[in-house]
Amino acid sequence: AAAAAAARRVVSSLGTEASYVTLGQAGAQQSFLAECPEEKAFQLVPHWAESGLGGSDLPGGADVEECEAIGGYLGDAFVVLADAPEETLAIAGEQGAALVPVFAGTPPPQVLPVRAPWFATQEQWKLLLDQGASPDKVAAACASVLTTFGAHHKAVAEPENCDELWYADPDADRWAQLAETGAQPPPDVSKGNLRLQGSFSGKATTHSHQMDVNVGVDFEMPSKVAAKTMKQLSDS
């Protein structure tokens, strides 16, 4: 259930920009691959074997063990499912790939770090490693951190096609609400004060740096000034 739910959310977020490769094994890998676009789904199998699954077979090593080793070099990001081979994960980690666990109901392997990597918040990482978390919540967290990692990777590989900053912001909804407020027509007021109070936090990531962002707001201003400020926001 967790593998299929994660695949649906990941495909919804990344779509056809990504290719999806497994080792062609039944179980969690098969469940994940079944939710991926047929033309973007691949199985790495020994050159003499056929997976019998959807998508296309990629003939690899002489046996399953060689395929597991080769698999560690094939991706920039790995969704770590319940049956993921330790050797594949170890090689992928050495290559600097993102390892994103999907382990609702099963214990994660020791190769995964306890603390969150740069492309995930600590809350997201704790959820991804939680054996008792619901598959839907794990799937949503998986898609979110992969989207963040993908944005960073694209900024490095294709900087001319990217904005200067990419954000992994757990308060995105509140930022959106603030933007909507600023876009409204200014109120017709002539007296009184407006109090602004709130806080926002998140991570700002460029293709070379990452920083924590914390913004707090708590002040009053005359309503006339507030109206003028909101008008400037709506015109910008």
UniProtKB/TrEMBL annotation:
Q: Where is this region: Disordered?
A: 181-207
The biased composition feature labelled Polar residues covers 196-207
Protein name as annotated: Uncharacterized protein
Q: Which organism does this record belong to?
A: Symbiodinium natans
Top-rank taxon = Eukaryota
